[in-house]
Amino acid sequence: MIEIQVHNDQNTVAVDSSRLQQAVRNVYADRNIKQGEVSLAVIGDEQMQTLNARYLNHDWPTDVLSFVHESTDTCLDGEIIVSADTAVRQAGRYGWEPADELLLYVIHGALHLIGHDDHCADDLSDMRAAERRHLDYFGLVPRYDELGTEP
Question: Phi/psi at 117 (nearest 5 deg)?
Answer without folding.
Answer: -130, 165
